[in-house]
Amino acid sequence: MQTAVEQQNPTSFVDRRSAGAPRTGGPERRQFTASVNNANPAICELSEAVDQYKLRHHRRFITFEELHKVITDLGYHK
């Protein structure tokens, strides 16, 4: 049984997950750099490093282990 919306416009569904579809709708979304407006250079450096890691490894989100790798690659240690 179809709902009233489906009966009115049955072809309105657009599968945006398909690999061949070009991305539209503005700039690329980033997890950190799009929202960082802090003057602290260490925070800016970390956010840029995380975003670069995500771009290189085609990841939208990273795990704690990956974040630890990014931080240690920047030279931080306990």
Question: What would the average pLDDT be, to the nearest integer?
Answer: 76
Q: What sequence of helices (H) and strands (E) makes up the elements?
A: HHH
- The first-to-last residue Cα distance is 61 Å
Give the overall shape.
elongated
Beta-strand residue fraction = under 5%
Number of helices: 3
> Main beta sheet: strand number and arrangement?
none
Taking pLDDT < 50 over at least 5 consecutive residues as the criterion, the unreliable ranges are: none
List how many beta strands DSSP finds. 0
Query: Which structural class do you get from the secondary structure elements?
Result: mainly alpha
**C-alpha-based Rg, rounded:** 20 Å
- Helix fraction, binned, reads 25-40%
What is this structure, in a nutshell?
This protein is mostly helical. The protein is 40% helix and 0% strand. It is elongated.
